[in-house]
Amino acid sequence: xxTRNALELKGVKKNFGRAEIIRGLNLEVHEHERHVIIxxxxxxxxxxxxxxxxxxKVSDGSIKLFGNDIHNLPAHKVNRMGLxxxxxxxxLFQNMTVMExxxxxxxxxxxxxxxxxxxxxxxxxxxxxxxxLAERLNLTEQAEIPASLLTYAQQRxxxxxxxxxxxxxxxxxxxxxxxxxxxEANDVIQLIQRMTGENTLVVVEHDLSVVFELADRxxxxxxxxxxxxGTPEEIRNNAAVQEAYLGxxxx
Amino acid sequence: MATNTAAGSTNLLKLWPWVVVPLVAIVLPFxxxxxxxxxxxxxxxxxxxxxxxxxxxxxxxGLLSFGHAVYYGLGAYVAMHLLRSINDAGGEGLPIELLPxxxxxxxxxxxxxxxxxxxxxxxxxxxxxxxxxxxxxHSSSLMFTDFFGGEAGLFGYRDEAPSLFGVDxxxxxxxxxLVVAWAMIAAILIYLLKKTPLGWMANAVRDNPERxxxxxxxxxxxxxxQFALSAMFAGLAGGLFVITDEIVxxxxxxxxxSGAVLLGTYxxxxxxxxxxxxxxxLVTFLESSLSAYTEAWVLYFGLMFIAIVMFAPMGxxxxxxxxxxxxxxxxxxxxxxARLYILLTGLVGIFGLVCVIELAYHYFRSWDPSAPFxxxxxxxxxxxxxxxxxxxxxxIIGFGLMLxxxxxxxxxxxGAKSDGGKA
Lengths: 251, 423
Description:
CATH topology of chain A: Rossmann fold
CATH superfamily of chain A: P-loop containing nucleotide triphosphate hydrolases
Radius of gyration of chain A: 18 Å
Helix content of chain B: 55-70%
Number of strands of chain B: 4
Low-confidence stretches of chain A: none
Helix content of chain A: 25-40%
Shape of chain B: globular
Order of helices and strands of chain B: HHHHHHEHHHHEHHHHHEEH
CATH class of the largest domain in chain B: Mainly Alpha
Number of helices of chain A: 9
CATH topology of the largest domain in chain B: ABC transporter involved in vitamin B12 uptake, BtuC
CATH architecture of the largest domain in chain B: Orthogonal Bundle
Mean pLDDT of chain A: 89
Structural class of chain A: alpha/beta
Number of strands of chain A: 10
Order of helices and strands of chain A: EEEHEEHEHHHEHEHEEHH
Oligomer: heterodimer
Strand content of chain B: under 5%
Number of domains of chain B: 2
Shape of chain A: globular
């Protein structure tokens, strides 16, 4: 495994008016690792994801994806450079079926761009990939069902599938198991491990049992700053983390 | 809804509308062979192309435009200028059959220009920009008389131009067949466009622009291409209009034309490919026929639009389609009578309402309210209480039975199932 950095944040700041939400963020995510971000509510985890994925502009600092600057690029350009994300609230094409969602997610990465001279259904490569993904997501039986009619857990897995389908090398997952029962959460964790083998994964997660199961490394975000990064074992034994987060955790 | 659902099965049987509709279109002018009827049919064909192009924005991309007539009208003006230059050259130049292509080119040109700054945002911002552009172009049409011909408009002669196939386009029936041919070409192209990556992503951008971004698409570019292509087909309709009417004036670019295509498309049903076809046809028919019977036709038109928006947002085609699905699934078993009863009482109520409106129109608009006038074939006096009482009575009984007798009856019959009923 190389130690190349997939994602690198240097001195990233974000303020909304005078409120400084992210106060000088430094983070290195190695290629092929599963990196989990934890932190108390309001620490800025979601804001950090919004900054990385191009949904928000950074006030200061730089974000690099495989060595290329991506801060302040629009979201679709960030995506084309190899980064995709899921959201805290499920974010799908609700009126489309599972297969249609997957096809739409595959179109750009399969190189079809804005073509208006060829049929989508005629693209065998897209169809094959979509069926393969549906199978890996355990959604083959639901293939022709509109996304809005899936169960919550199925919608979350479809969203992860769409994220992977868009051809991204780095995938950000924002609380993938939020609002799920224990068994559903376990299914999703297995799915994440299955789907993201080759990719680099950055996950925001609240559920500490999920965190320690999933993570290669953990970063702790408190009040807009990373106070510690390390293996699960190191984080568990880190005094500053225990004081700032684990000790005072309200969950 | 119901957009990409026809999953690629190239079942030839499913293509039957593409054969039946043109056959009917070709037969129609022999059944209705008056000059007026054939002109009306031609206008319907133009309206269908225009409405289909409008639905590329509203239905497929979720862009509500209040100024689509801009591209229709500018297409028409440019085509008219070319027709005039052909006329001036003594009938030498571009064959008349290809004139709509000139309109399409003009539509595309202006679509690209105006599209660059109007599609950045969907929703209210887009709607406001189109409204402004519509007003801008309409007022220009009255200011720049060299190009737009002022209030009188511009004339040209379709039979003083060469024809590809040696057809004489003086008889309006021949023009009608040309309209049918172009309408078929446009409908097929617009239909196929929905099947392409662009068409799919237009739906995706409509449903969730953010997700579209995170699979690599720039929503602005998707909207822009759809907008420009839609303007192109609107221009094609405008070019065809030049051939059918041989005159273009500011009406072609004004807000009424923009409004009519919006109403027609919506009434037909924006979620269905045939929605705008039904809507465009219906609106053209009502505009020309209803206006011969009653002064209040615009009012009826507005009431119908409001009723559709409130009670059947999927449009007329949507009503038929949901009822058809329901019927096929056996949802009509044992309650067909109740459904027909609701329909019938509803129609009685509408009849009564129409009588009231006609009476009111006569009473308030006529020089002499007491002058006898024909209401539904009966000569009545609007200053008399009796016709009012009868009309109100019919309306109240009709709607009353529908709402307080028919609806509960259907609900009872459906039992626990609360779906279905009059949409």
